[in-house]
Amino acid sequence: MWPTSLRNLSELASGNVFNEYFQKQFNGNEEDFQRAKEGYEEQLGRDNEKALDAAFFLITSTEITRDERIEKLRDLLKRCERALGEKNAVTFETLNLLGIKMDESGEYEEAIEYYERALKGSERTLRKNHPSMLTSVMNIAVVYKIQKDYGKAEELYQRALEGYEAQLGKDHKSTMRCPENYLNCLNVGGNSARLAELRKAHPNAHNYDV
Fold it and tell me: What stretches of residues are TPR repeats (predicted)?
């Protein structure tokens, strides 16, 4: 029996961590990922949501070059948009991962474009302050910070922080990651007043260079 869900965008945002259920089901084996994809395609059709989801995880788990991975992700994105639309989770997961790959390569404008499309889709689909949506907000903030557009980055970090605190609580690990990155942005951006406020509100957060 195939798993009913393979997705976890919050974990995928790290770039290297995949859905635990999927790993347990298929033991992280490329052949098992391929078998899952082929099984879904045979039973449900090539562009069925589950088949596309399995294709997404096969792309992320296979040992291929960066350029090959990006090409496959772009092809998958076209299929997702055609079959599922931009409001579907598989579509904005693919957009988000393409953003990550562009970000890693220093192609920041393209990264922001993909991240913003992912955010737009998740805002239409998920509940307010869903962790997956907030991940996209954080990703965009990181890129703006790298580009030294500190004003935009700070606004997005603040939005993400408020969302995480409302949804997960102040002490959740995902919430804690946000002020850590936010502190660094405020520090390098020279916003000393807000930096002092945030340090007081989150004394256990560290100022990481992210």
Answer: 92-125
Angle between helix 131-146 and helix 89-104 axes, rounded to 10 deg: 20
Q: What's the rounded Cα separation, in Å, for the pair 26 and 68?
A: 23
End-to-end CA distance of the chain: 41
- For the stretch 78-128, pLDDT in tens is 999 999 998 888 898 899 999 999 999 999 999 999 999 999 988 888 888
Instruction: Specify whether the CB–CB gap between 56 and 90 falls below 8 A.
Output: yes
Given phi > 0 = left and psi -120 to 50 = alpha, else beta, which region is 62? beta
For 51, which DSSP code?
Answer: H
Q: What is the pTM of this model?
A: 0.78
Look at the block and give the residue holding tokens 């990481």.
Answer: 208
pLDDT digits (tens, 9 = 90+) for 115-137: 999 999 888 888 888 888 898 99
